[in-house]
Amino acid sequence: MEVVAYIGLGSNMGEKKANLKVALELLGRVPGVKLLRVAPFYRTEPVGYTDQDWFVNTVAEVETTLSPRELLAACLEVENRLGRVRGVRWGPRVIDLDLLLYNGQVIDEPALVVPHPRMHERAFVLVPLADLAPDLVIPDRGGVRELLAGVDRQVVEQL
Ligand SMILES: Nc1ncnc2c1ncn2[C@@H]1O[C@H](COP(=O)(O)OP(=O)(O)OP(=O)(O)O)[C@@H](O)[C@H]1O
Ligand SMILES: Nc1nc2c(c(=O)[nH]1)N=C(CO)CN2
């Protein structure tokens, strides 16, 4: 069965925009994943651990025949290919791919939580997601547009 999923991408090390472009290119080449649309890129203030460089973030809409776990594994594979090394939690990264939404499903497993547990409070996710799907409802959280209206002020500037 083909389903639509949303993947959040972020980079705050090196050539940030180029990192996102390479990650999107690799993601689109994964068998069973078709890139449908990509939101504009945004320059965003770091959230969580704030003593780090600003990020570039975007969101991709994909159609996939992969299961949620397979799609997450594909995201982690793309991170590895871009040379991501895990350090400080919420700290600097060459690339980060988060599985935000998978066909409106709710998944609560040790290694996979969908909708992504922090997406609804992150302007760097909600702003690009709203570009693609303003009317989308995040299961158990609410509509993208409404969530965005209530989110804390975080600087998110379109590039
Ligand atoms: N929806 C999801 N998307 C991506 N990773 C997830 C998801 N749910 C659970 N995980 C798990 O979380 C791990 C990713 O942690 P990671 O280091 O990328 O977190 P982070 O990006 O620092 O923080 P955050 O999760 O707040 O964005 C993955 O190894 C994966 O198993
Ligand atoms: N602006 C911004 N801040 C973050 C980001 C991110 O992608 N963008 N990712 C984090 C960990 O997932 C923590 N903080």
Overall morphology: globular
> Mean pLDDT score, rounded?
94
Helix content: 25-40%
By CATH's scheme, which homologous superfamily applies? 7,8-Dihydro-6-hydroxymethylpterin-pyrophosphokinase HPPK
CATH C-level: Alpha Beta
Bound molecules: adenosine-5'-triphosphate, 2-amino-6-hydroxymethyl-7,8-dihydro-3H-pteridin-4-one
How would you sum up the major sheet? 6 strands, antiparallel
CA-to-CA gap between the ends?
Answer: 35 Å
The computed structural class is: alpha+beta
- Report the count of strand segments: 10
Work out the strand percent: 25-35%
Helical stretch count? 4
The CATH architecture designation is: 2-Layer Sandwich
Unreliable spans: none
**CATH fold label:** Alpha-Beta Plaits
- In N-to-C order, the SSE pattern is EHEEEHEEEHEEHE
Radius of gyration: 14 Å
The number of domains: 1
Give an overview of the whole structure.
The protein is α+β, with helices and mostly antiparallel strands. The protein has a single domain, classed as 2-Layer Sandwich (Alpha-Beta Plaits), CATH 3.30.70. Helices cover 28% and strands 30% of the residues. The protein is built from four helices and ten strands. The protein has helices at 16-28, 68-81, 123-132, 144-150; strands at 3-11, 33-38, 42-44, 55-64, 96-102, 107-109, 112-114, 137-138, 142-143, 156-158. Strands 1, 2, 3, 4, 5 and 10 form a six-stranded antiparallel sheet that branches. A hairpin with a 3-residue loop joins strand 8 (137-138) and strand 9 (142-143). Helix 3 (123-132) runs antiparallel to helix 4. The protein is globular and about 40 Å long. Adenosine-5'-triphosphate is lined by residues 72, 86, 89-90, 96, 98-99, 111-114, 116, 118.
